[in-house]
Every structure is written in C-alpha cells, then in structure tokens.
Request: fold
Amino acid sequence: MRTLRISTAVISALGVLTLSACGAAETGKKDEVGGDKTVKLTVPSWVGAQANTAVAAYILKKELGYTVKTQQMGEVLAWDALSKGDVDAIMEDWGHPKEEKQYVTTKKTVVKGGDLGVTGHIGWFVPKYFADKHPDVTDYKNLNKYAKEFKTGESGDKGEILEGSPDYVTNDDALIKNLKLDLKTNYSGSEAAQITAIKKYAKEQKPFLTYWWTPQWLNAQVDMVEVKLPEYKTGCDADPKKIACAYPNTPLQKYFNADFAKSGGKAAEFLKNFKWTTEQQNEVALMIAGEKMSPEAAAEKWVKANEATWKAWLPKK
Reply:
C-alpha cells in the first residue's frame, strides 16, 4: 500500500536500490564484507517507499558518512528481517497488526521509529470518465449492476477488481464475499504491472475497478474516483474473515530493529527525525518513475533543492 504514488520499460527498471559510501560512523552494525559499519534499509516494491529510502540513503551517505545497503523485499518478509537484524529500518509501513504484536509487543525485537509524515489510504477506485457516465457506480451497493462492465478474460463471469502484489495489505476477498458482490480479484503481481494495466485501460477509455491507494504519483496522470464502501469504524477489521467495511486512513510509520534503535548512533537519530509530506514524497517518486531518473539521482536533486527541510532531520551536534 503505496501514497499520487510512464513507460513500461521505466517501471520494470525500478528495482533494488544499492547505495554505498566511503567512510563510516557509529551504527553498532558491521558489514560482513570489509568490516565497515553500515546502515541496512529495506525497500518495498512501490515507488513512493523507494523515494523514502533513496533520500534517506543519500543523506546518510553524503552528509553523515555512512555506508548504506538496501534490499528490496516483501512487506511481511521485511518484518522478519528487521526482527533478526538483517535490516535496520523499514521506512514505510502500512499497518501489520500481526507482526506488530509478534515483534514489537511480544519479542520486543522491533521498536517504533516514528511517523513518516504521510497518511496512506487504500480503497476501490474506478476511472473518472466511467464515473461521470455512471455516477451511481461510486456506491458499492451498485457494483453488481456494473459487474459485466468490469469482466476480463481472467475474471470469468464475474467483474474483475484489479489488484497489485499479493503481498500488499488487502481485505478484498473478504469484502467481496461479505458484501455479496459479483466480483473476483485478479493479482497483476506488482505495482508496476498494475500501473501498466491501469494506463492501458485509461488510454483506451475502458471501464475498470481497481484496488488502489493514495498517495500515489499516478493519480496526477490518471483521474480515478473512489467507490464508497461501508464506513470504517474502529475494530470493524478485527476479524479478517468478517471484514465488511472500508479501509482506514493510515498514518504511515517507520520501524527499527531494537538493537539498531539503541546503538545506531547518528544514523538511528536521523532516521527517527526523517519526516516529510505526501507532496515531497510524490515529487521524488515522479522523478524516479516519470522522469526516468535513478533513485540516487532523484534523491540528489531533491536534497539540493530542499536543504531547509532535511537539515532539520540531522542529529544535533
């Protein structure tokens, strides 16, 4: 899940970030190769989160003299790696209650790293050009009326709801069942593949229904309207099998390995201070995905233009 969060070639090129720097500072962690102290960050699969890591890594490297290593991995796997100390920080988490209970509350191997400053929201969306012609489609109660409009070769006799990665936080199968909707989820496999499908539909002005989120950079290029699901109320999603309500608004959080938080020195202090806006995240994400810049080049451009913002994140001397 994944902030106004572009050629296919560019998207497919988005991969693992690997940033390194000469010199080292006190992190309490040692790289297995060469013995240099390092900061290890996980990179989720969506571009908004990649923007966080790119900027954090660039500043850690250029301003604080750290070696930074990054690894792209799924959300749940990242929690396990964080607990084991294989990575030091997750810079954007969309809410994983099970993992929080296991690693933060019970094992105490992971600690909260503070608010990222971006509020995420997941929902079901249709293109505005379709909603303009059929205004009632924006109420879930009318989705069965339009199910045939959303049918694809993968959805059989039901309407398709286009999904991204199966690793993303989603309640959609439960929602379909509990709200008695003639829909079927179809996982494209990744944010990149989902974006490719959405852009193709939009170019051809075809109707579609998709699991989607804000903030996300594509929202500035493809105008989509959210479908109103039953109102979210605290606890309505407590039982995964009985969920029949909308997704909540989620202030996105950072999480640190507990040992890193304690002995990570200036790196841990900096990452805790790292907090920016949705607009700032989208600015970097669009450079990476839309302007074909490498994550490091996008981070460098943003850092040079926003010194007043990131200077406040640096540890006090």
In short: The chain has 13 helices and nine strands. The radius of gyration is 20 Å. Residues 84 and 192 are 29 Å apart (CA to CA). Confidence is low (pLDDT under 50) at residues 1-35.
